[in-house]
Specification:
The complex is a heterodimer.
Chain A: E1 7-12, E2 16-23, E3 26-29, E4 39-40, E5 43-45, E6 51-53, H1 55-59, E7 68-69, H2 83-91, E8 96-98, E9 105-109, E10 112-115, H3 116-135, E11 141-146, H4 152-164, E12 168-174, H5 175-182, E13 190-198, E14 203-211, E15 214-223, H6 228-246, H7 256-272, E16 278-287, E17 296-303, H8 304-310, H9 312-328, E18 338-342, H10 349-359, H11 372-385, E19 404-408, E20 412-417, E21 425-431, E22 440-447, E23 457-465, E24 477-483, E25 489-495, E26 501-506, H12 514-564, H13 572-588, H14 592-613
Parallel strand pairs in A: 1-11, 11-12, 13-18
Antiparallel strand pairs in A: 1-2, 2-3, 2-4, 5-6, 5-7, 8-9, 9-10, 13-14, 14-15, 16-17, 19-20, 19-22, 21-24, 22-23, 24-25, 25-26
Helix pairs in contact in A: 3-4, 5-11, 6-7, 12-13, 12-14, 13-14
Chain B: H1 2-16, H2 20-33, H3 38-50, H4 89-99, H5 139-145, H6 166-180, H7 183-196, H8 201-222, E1 230-231, H9 245-253, H10 260-267, H11 271-283, E2 287-288
Antiparallel strand pairs in B: 1-2
Helix pairs in contact in B: 1-2, 1-3, 1-6, 2-3, 6-7, 6-8, 7-8, 8-11, 9-11
Classes of the chains: A alpha+beta, B mainly alpha.
Chain lengths: 622, 289
């Protein structure tokens, strides 16, 4: 075992997240403290006020929908009012609000307004804690993956989430690149690889051009509202209608508890059918049978064939999106050297078959599709902190995720640095004025894929004045875009004739200001300190109270015997039981204050018991 | 069982409105149906201790059903107030006389706390009334010369205390049940009161007390709350149980990975309901810690 500080790779997914590491040269997934390899990316405040993360949060996602945040990845780094946020608002049951500056998205959770990076940070912190439990020591550094189409703002937000979670994010890497890394592609190979990633909530297709250890994402496509949950919903609908038919029209959708169980069972049956030809869905006491009647059961057999029939169009959509992505990239299926399956849904035999039929080749199957992205991230994390043997370095180049450019006349977007350009890079373009004697121009720096400027992300803007007056078209303005290795974008504009120059540095922002981030980090530090102090105080009081309880319990037989011969103090045992029950309740609630209150009663009970056991007079007030 | 509940309900109503023979008959009838019924037995004990003559009614059950020792201590009443203002003065006097009857040894908590123990005394409350003019202060004369005003505006009919309302009866019954240790029965009545009068302060106090006591009782049956419960029967046997859909939901969450605290969080039900369902599942041998 190396003495290096442990580093982890995290696949922060829309639906599930996975953490992995490299140990003794072997990449492996770290199970969470519940023993599972996948942690649902869900954060909730339960109805009893408890904060829940992961599997527990998922179990009450329907019954407590307004206080359960899922799919935060759809919102991270997005602007308030953007199309993606408006789309998300249509289907998310929790409440979204604008940030204080009105430009980013916040959620209402448990009566608080919380930023999206804070939500993601809760998931990251959970994974960090799982890793620390596994390593038995602190973990501070991680590589985190994001979709290839994430812009700089979304990447920065993810980094901020890591910072809030107490992680130094060594690098943000693209999910398809990470998957390719896990397969060891890039060593001694030059080929085009398609990463077919059908996750819980989104479908992404990426085309990688791998050559001499350089991973170039040459094409990205997908459907951000197509994933495993759509397959689950088909099963749920099928079960709901069948149940209504068999039970006089009882609609399970009207009962949140029933719906929660239906959702869980649908997902489980879907997974079962990846390996078995049929599965039984058995949900006893699912819903009330009505006044004076017993609860109703659901019993149904689902076959793989039926599931394929129910989800046929979804699989076809995946293939149609894949086809479009390849066409956009000017590629034919036959030119693809490898196909990597990523995401739990690709374990569905029908999906794997459809991919094979489309590409005319068997997809790579060496690595588990749920784990492959996290494993790649772990490999990259390890490569960044551990010296690699010569010739075996995994060279991962950062590329620009989207086109960078500026707004030109007519509201169009003019690309200066195309997407997938390896950074650091610098490009210069010449522009001219639109009016006669124009002395100033507005430079709006944008990032995105649309031809219309307004549909792209505005990174920043500035005015260049002091331009030489001249006829329109005669003035030359040189605009230079430069991206540093850290992803910082610098844009400068210069009047070639006068030399007048203006520039702007664009640092991607998550919507959280530095002050806000500092406040969140301070609050977390305070909370951690408080929790530590509270824990210490609670443990002290609990131990003291339990010592008293044990002593009281030990005296009980003698007290019972003494009371049999006495006319007084008959209620002593009952009173003691009441006090002990209250103490246990306070301990269960981890309420140090309540334990303190009960401690005096315990003391008095103990004194009374001692007196009774010794056969002496009862103490005053006992 | 609904007949039994009705009979007990009738008995409780009779008891709290002072119709002791009727109450006695109802509880004895209840015991005939269910000899182990704790509520009926508890009331009979109480009637025996407070109305010794009534207990010798011709239909006495002493011959058939052994009753618990009348000296069995009552569960402590909620310590909501220094003393219960609704207790009739006669009963208090009776209780004080009984307390002094040959018992030289008293505990401090047997007595209401001294007002001197609670800090400086407040001024005595004076209730002013127009009635009985001439016997005391002449209010009409005083009111012209000072700020002293009657509490009831002139011309308005004084509020007469009518017969006890359902809420009064339920509250009294709820207190009785609480004192008898029947917290579930007490809670049911309190909930009835709060449906009629959601802001009833005393009912709310009793609601809290009942709930806290019941939660504590049920949780004590679960054991440590960080323990992970597991199914104690075969999965295929579950459907032969008699559960409601809420218990069905909770049972579905018990898969060997979630502890009791987790179940309280994911159930979405009030803590009392969750604790009650889990305690019942343990009692029925459906789950084990």
């Amino acid at each position: 075992m190396s003495e290096l500080e442990p580093v982890i790779g995290i696949d922060l997914g829309t639906t599930n997240s996975v953490v992995a590491t490299v140990r003794d040269g072997v990449p492996r997934v770290i199970p969470n403290r519940g023993g599972l390899l996948l942690t649902p990316s869900i954060v909730a405040v339960a109805k009893n006020g408890k904060r829940l993360v992961g599997a527990l949060a998922k179990r009450q996602a329907i019954t407590n929908a307004e206080n359960t945040v899922f799919a935060a990845k759809r919102l991270i780094g997005r602007r308030w009012g953007s199309k993606e946020v408006e789309d998300a608002r249509q289907f998310l049951p929790y409440q979204l609000v604008a940030g204080p500056e009105g430009n980013d998205v916040r959620v209402q959770l448990g009566g608080r307004t919380v930023s999206i990076p804070e939500i993601s940070a809760v998931v990251l912190a959970e994974l960090k804690a799982d890793a620390e439990a596994w390593f038995g020591r602190p973990v501070r550094k991680a590589v985190v993956t994001v979709p290839a189409y994430f812009n700089d703002g979304q990447r920065q937000s993810t980094k901020d989430a890591g910072r809030i979670a107490g992680l130094e994010v060594l690098r943000i890497i693209n999910e398809p690149t990470s998957a390719a890394l896990a397969y060891g592609f890039g060593k001694q190979m030059e080929k085009k690889v398609v990463v077919f990633d059908l996750g819980g909530g989104t479908f992404d297709v990426s085309i990688l051009d791998i050559g001499k250890s350089v991973y170039d994402v040459v094409g990205v496509g997908g459907d951000t509202y197509l994933g495993g949950e759509d397959f689950d919903r088909r099963i749920m609908d099928w079960l709901t209608f069948a149940f209504a038919k068999e039970n006089g029209g009882v609609d399970l959708r009207q009962d949140k508890m029933a719906l929660q169980r239906l959702k869980d069972a649908s997902e489980k049956s879907k997974c079962d059918l990846s390996t078995a030809p049929s599965t039984a869905i058995h949900l006893p006491f699912l819903v009330s049978g009505g006044e004076g009647k017993g609860a109703l059961h659901l019993d149904k057999q689902l076959t793989r064939e039926k599931l394929e029939e129910l989800t046929k169009d979804l699989v076809e959509r995946c293939i149609a999106v894949t086809d479009k992505t390849l066409r956009d990239a000017g590629l034919r299926a036959a030119q693809v050297g490898e196909v990597i399956l990523v995401g739990g849904m690709t374990r569905m035999p029908r999906v794997a078959r459809a991919v094979r039929d489309y590409f005319g080749r068997e997809p790579s199957r060496g690595v588990h599709p749920d784990e492959v992205v996290a494993l790649g991230a772990a490999i990259q994390a390890h490569a960044l902190v551990a010296p690699q043997p010569k010739g075996e370095e995994v060279l991962l180049l950062d590329v620009t995720p989207q086109n960078l450019g500026l707004m030109v006349v007519g509201g169009y977007f003019n690309t200066v640095i195309p997407r997938n350009t390896t950074v650091p890079t610098s490009q210069t373009h010449l522009f001219t004025t639109v009016q006669d004697n124009q002395t100033s121009v507005r430079i709006a720096v944008l990032q995105g894929e649309s031809e219309k400027a307004i549909e792209n992300e505005l990174l920043g803007e500035f005015i260049l004045d002091g331009i030489r007056p001249g006829r329109r078209g005669d003035v030359s303005i040189e605009v230079t875009f430069a991206i540093s290795a850290d992803g910082i974008v610098g844009v400068s504009a210069r009047d070639v004739a006068t030399g007048a120059e203006q520039s702007i540095t664009v640092t991607a922002t998550s919507g959280l200001t530095e002050d806000e981030l500092k406040r969140i980090l301070d609050e977390q530090r305070d909370e951690l300190l408080e929790r530590k102090q509270t824990t210490r105080e609670f443990e002290l009081r609990r131990d003291r109270a339990m010592a008293l309880v044990r002593e009281i319990d030990g005296l009980r037989p003698a007290v019972e015997s003494a009371l049999e011969k006495s006319r007084f103090g008959k209620d002593a045992i009952q009173k003691a039981e009441t006090v002990i029950a209250r103490v246990r309740q306070a301990i269960a609630a981890r309420d140090a204050g309540a334990i303190e209150v009960e401690e005096e009663q315990l003391d008095r009970t103990l004194q009374l018991f001692r007196a009774l056991a010794a056969g002496g007079p009862m103490p005053a007030g006992g | 069982m609904s007949d039994l509940a009705e009979i007990i309900d009738r008995g409780v109503r009779a008891y709290v409105t002072g119709r002791i023979p009727e109450a006695l008959a109802a509880f004895q009838q209840a015991l005939a149906l269910d000899p182990q019924n704790a509520k009926a037995r508890g009331y009979l004990v109480r009637i025996q201790s407070t109305h010794p003559g009534a207990a010798t009614a011709p239909t006495s059950f002493h011959g058939r059903v052994p009753l618990p020792d009348v000296a069995h201590p009552e569960p402590p009443a909620p310590t909501l107030k220094p003393f219960d203002v609704s207790t009739p003065v006669e009963e208090l006097a009776h209780a004080h006389a009984a307390a002094g009857d040959g018992h030289a040894h008293h505990h401090e908590e047997d007595f209401a706390p001294s007002p001197w123990d609670e800090g400086p005394a407040a001024g005595a409350t004076i209730v002013l009334s127009d009635e009985g003019a001439g016997a005391g202060i002449d209010l009409s004369a005083v009111s012209e010369k000072s700020d002293l005003r009657p509490l009831v505006p002139e011309g308005q009919a004084p509020v007469l205390r009518g017969p006890p309302t359902d809420v009064d009866l339920w509250l009294k019954a709820a207190k009785e049940l609480f004192a008898l240790g029947d917290f579930t029965g007490s809670l049911e009545l309190i909930e009835k009161i709060l449906i009629v009068d959601p802001d009833h302060g005393e009912a709310r106090d009793y609601l809290r007390q009942n709930e806290a006591t019941l939660v504590s009782m049920y949780e004590s049956k679960l054991g440590p709350l960080h323990a992970v419960p597991r199914l104690a029967i075969k999965p295929e046997e579950v459907m032969w149980l008699n559960l409601d859909h809420r218990a069905g939901f909770l049972l579905a969450q018990i898969d060997g990975s979630v502890d009791y605290e987790g179940l309280f969080a994911v159930s979405g039900l009030p803590r009392l309901d969750t604790a009650r369902i889990l305690a019942n599942l343990i009692a029925d041998g459906v789950i084990r810690s």
